[in-house]
Amino acid sequence: MLLKKVLFALILLLTFSSNTAFAHVEKEEQKKAAALIKEAVDLMKNGNYEKSLVKSRLALSLALSSKDNNLIASAYNTIAANFDQLSEFDKAYLYYHKGLVYANKTNNDLLKNWLNNNLGNIYCFDKKQYEKGIYYYKKSLEFSTKSRDSSQIVFTKLNLTWAHFDIEQFDQGLPYLNYINKFHEKHGDSTTVVALNMLNGMYYSHKNDCDKAIFYFENAIKLGIEGDEKSDLSYSYHEYAEFLNKNGDYENAYKNLTIYNAITDQLNNEAKHNKSNIAGINLEIDEFKREIDKIESELKTKEHKFLHEQSRNKKIVIVLVAVLIMLFFLFYFYAQNVKLKHKNRLKDLRSKVQENTINATINGQELERKKIASFLHDNISALLSSAGMHLFAHISQNPTTSQEIIKTKAILEEAHDQVRNLSHELMPSLLARFGLFDALEDLCDKNSNSILNFKYISAVERTTRYDEDFEMKIYFIVMELLNNIIKHSDAIEAQLRLKENNDSLQIDIIDNGKGFDANKFQIVEGFGLSQITARLNNLQGNIDINSTLEVGTSIKIIVPIVHRV
């Protein structure tokens, strides 16, 4: 025990000493990466995309080096957001997707919410693949709901409403719109109020409620002019122009459409201006991607090298511990194996003793049956027959016979019949005289009635004879199984099938009764199957029982044939 404690202490010491320096480096890198991401986000908000991308690049390198999935995902998200602002949507999609891969390895539901929402924006507004966009919006809603971020829930539901309304799915979008109308004042902000009024205008336009539609469209335009949401303002003019055109006000529709085009041109010019200010970045976009891939490759190489060095430092201790553990388990398994073998030997011995006891009891019973049947048939039955013959002779010689003599004759005949029947039950005469197959067919006939019919099918010649003791054992096994069907099965049809197969006798007994659960030991014992199994084991045979409740039972017995010597 002391040795084990020392070994574990050595492992912990090696692990701690080799990891402490590395952990310290990782912590410093994480701090630097987090600070660079914050700087990059601030630069992006101020429109300085070139510097933001440079900072994001450095942050991603440090995040990959420290293997911090949160920071890696955040760095990718920041890079993608820069490309999004520069209208480089394919590259934005690429890095949003990379960021989501790493975010999904974390518990950061806020980050997952933003990345899914941003991918939804790319699909809906840029790729016009609304089905995929709605999928990502719903994933975003799942994470914002999980994190209980009320403002994000409102924001995501607004995007879902917009996506559904854009493809004329007003019924699907309405529940989200109702939620936003109810909670926007509490959890929304000024950046989404223009879009909210526009969406209400779109809905009432769809419902042909012109007054409400005009109110919300004009309110959206008013708030858009007062604020700084040019993109939402342009969409508001566009949707309002479509509404006016639909209702025949072509002049105002044209005016609103003209304003929409003017704002859209202005936004496009601003985007071009932003791109022209970062021409150098545009030239480096593809190189930047290759650089990131190179960073990831270098990181894997460094990680592999570190793990190799760490493994070499621990090698001696691990080998020693492994040898000790192996020796311990070998000793443990050896001891358990010895114990198990001893236990199994005792179990087998008990089982053998029990089986021998059962077989001895059964053999004794069968021997006694045979003796009693022989005694009844050869002695008692003969004496009763002799007495009957003398009485018959007396009656023949004396025409006037008393009533007592006649009654005595009747009693002797009844006694003779009962003794004969008892003798046949103990040892059927058919079994002794004609063999197993005639006896079993007769057994089926005797047990058949108007309620239960036993059908006998044999592929073996009825004249075939086996060893007398073998025939007797098989007969009583089958008789016991047929009695079980009569007593317990509630069957209306049963079959007994016999055939020889590779010097073995196969017996199939099938009924369509109520069945039973063969796994219940009490039921099996109640049916006397343990004694039958013991008999078959003594004959080197086996029994297979399949029973289904309310369907029936099938029993298959295969036993090696013992031929007459």
UniProtKB/TrEMBL annotation:
Enzyme class: transferase
GO molecular function: protein histidine kinase activity
Keyword Magnesium: no
A biological process from GO: phosphorelay signal transduction system
Swiss-Prot/TrEMBL catalytic activity: ATP + protein L-histidine = ADP + protein N-phospho-L-histidine
Coiled-coil regions, chain positions: 278-305
SMART domains noted in UniProt: HATPase_c, TPR
Domain Histidine kinase: 477-563
Keyword Cell cycle: no
Protein name according to UniProt: histidine kinase
Species: Flavobacterium weaverense
Lineage: Bacteria, Pseudomonadati, Bacteroidota, Flavobacteriia, Flavobacteriales
